[in-house]
Each structure stands twice: as C-alpha cells, then as structure tokens.
Design a protein that fits this description.
There is one protein chain. The protein is an alpha+beta fold. The chain has one domain: mRNA Triphosphatase Cet1, Chain A, CATH 3.20.100. Helices cover 29% and strands 37% of the residues. It has 7 helices and 10 strands. The longest helix is centred in the N-terminal third of the chain and has 14 residues.
Length: 230
C-alpha cells in the first residue's frame, strides 16, 4: 500500500524565513546531505505535448503525477529519476538511480529500447508512459535548500531559496544554462512534510503570523515564468 505524506508550503520573505529557520535548527537535526543540511537541488521536469502535468497542477486536479530527473550539489554523478504523485493534497514519491547511459537514452528519446533493457520499475513505467503520452524535457528548476529532520516522527522541514527556471534542458548536466527567477527578489519557500499529524511542538516551530499556506508548485511557476505553458 502506498504511503502518502502531507506537505504544507509557504512563500516567505527572507526575514521571516531566517527567523523560522533559527527556531527549527535549534530543535531538529540538519539533513545528512550537504554541509549542515544545506545543498543545491537541480531537477529536470518532463511533460507531454499538452502540458498536462502543468495544467493539472494549475487546475488543482486531485490525483496527478509528474516525472523528474534530479541531482544534488555540483556533481551529477548520482542522478535519479523520480515520480511524484499527488492525491487529495498528500504526496508519494518513487525513485530509482539513473546511469549516464540511461540519461543519454532518455534525452535522445530512445524509450523503446530502454524499456526492454531496464529492470527498474520507475524507469520502465516512465518509458511506457512516455511512449503513450509523449513526455519530453520541459524545464529545469534549481534552488538552494537547507533541510532539518526529526527521525522518530519523520518530520522534515525545508527552506528553499533562490528558486529559478531554465528552458535549456539539454544543458541540464553541464549546468551551463540561463536561469530566470521564479519568485520576486527576496521571496523563498518553506515546506513542512510529515506522515499523519503534525504535533503542536512542530506547529510552534513553524508558526508565524505572516505565514499563509499556499499550493505552491516550483514546476508550474517555473513554466509560467518562462511563458511556455499553453
């Protein structure tokens, strides 16, 4: 049975984000990745010819999914393919590692051959969906993340700064592409992720009168910022 997690998202200014992060960092552990839980995130999202993933998100469709390739930090040696599903506001993610050869096949559109060569469930499903719906690279989303976790309750709180988008999808691994900010200067995103119930302790850590929960999608905002959603 799939396990879905709840995600609360807030768009904050730098001062509010820094104040909340100071509280959170005193009560939670930094993520094991990066330096003190901070690292850059690079994602290449896919969509079909009708931009269904972007339009479904923008329309608030309850059950939807999207695929992305992702790596962290400055090295693309550890590349993953992820399928992120949404159901009634809750999220489920499946992932698998991707080799450079598999990446090249994806970017060249060699899905029929890749489908029969791989035994990775997520990649195999992606190939089938791509052959049926025509998924292709749509946008690169980059940002800087600082993440904090509480291992016992599986609470994860992330602070995402300087979110940008690029249409230069073929340069995803090289990093040699122009970036357009997704949000106005000084605006960033706070995300709170948990399994079932967020206790009052964690609610207090992220509580702030200025916070308004938002259905924020980095992918959709990135597409809109590049004026490429039809």
């Amino acid at each position: 049975m799939k396990k879905y997690r709840t995600e609360w998202k807030y768009v904050c200014n730098e001062a509010d984000l820094a104040r909340i992060e100071a509280r959170v960092s005193s009560g939670l552990l930094p993520d094991e990745h990066g330096v003190n839980g901070c690292y850059s995130v690079h994602s290449l999202y896919f969509d079909d010819l009708k931009n269904s993933c972007a339009n479904d998100t923008d329309s608030g469709i309850s059950r939807r999914y999207k695929y992305r390739l992702r790596y962290y930090g400055s090295s693309s040696d550890r590349l993953t393919l992820e399928k992120k599903e949404k159901l009634d506001g809750r999220c489920h993610k499946k992932t698998c590692p991707i080799s450079r050869e598999e990446f090249d096949a994806i970017m060249q559109g060699d899905f029929s051959e890749l489908l029969w060569q791989t035994d990775k469930a997520v990649l195999k499903e992606f190939c089938v969906r791509t052959l049926a719906r025509g998924f292709r690279p749509a946008v690169i989303i980059d940002y800087e993340r600082c993440a904090y976790v509480e291992p016992t309750t599986h609470v994860r709180i992330t602070f995402d700064r300087n979110i940008s988008a690029s249409a230069d999808c073929q340069e995803f691994l090289s990093g040699d592409y122009l970036r357009r900010p997704v949000l106005p200067s000084g605006r960033h995103v706070l995300e709170v992720k948990f399994d079932e119930i967020l206790t009052s302790h964690f609610r207090h850590l992220v509580s702030d009168a200025s916070l308004v929960q938002s259905a924020f999608s980095k992918y959709t905002l990135g597409r809109l910022s590049l004026r490429s959603v039809s």
